[in-house]
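In line with agreed milestones, the collection of sequences with tokenised folds has grown. A representative record is reproduced below.
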Amino acid sequence: MQEYPVKLIVGLGNPGPKYQGHRHNTGQWYVDAVCRAWHGEWRPESRFAGEMARVNIDGNDVRLLFPTTFMNRSGQSVGAVCRYFNIEPENLLVAYDEIDYPAGTTRFRFGGGHGGHNGIRDIIQALGGQRDFYRRRIGGGPPGQKSMVAHYVLTEPSRSESQVIRATINEAVRVTPSAVSGQWQTVMRDMHTRQTD
């Protein structure tokens, strides 16, 4: 994995209390946990179609973003923030749900396609086709059948699944300082080793 520092962390999801607990909003869970851990304060930013916070993580100035567009228009918000603050794609980390992974599994990667995820698809388009940004994929548990995907991501995890997802999010928050400073080999070793122990 390439090793660039992170200047913007985005958590994907759908806006409003109706969707907050859904599997599709686990990216939002992560960025909100980062905001709390470093005492940030969310503020609505209509010009960026999202909510933003600014935190200092071990001396690194980092912006946090939750797009308040719906998931398939996430690029509208991410693209606007990147352009305004001159943030290059390689300094961007996007957290989102990954239904192909069991609940509680998380993976970091750099670059790649959208994998059928409409939020990532829209972000790639908003960045002019640029795919080279960091992703944090959070397992929401496979639905069993492909035809069930659209409904499944808009359901809440069971209590046991939610506990496992929250625990792995806490682990990801713990290694966030390494990610922000560009120490991605450390992040990969710590996160992926713990999940295979």
Observations:
- Strands lie at 8-11, 43-45, 50-57, 60-67, 92-98, 106-110, 134-139.
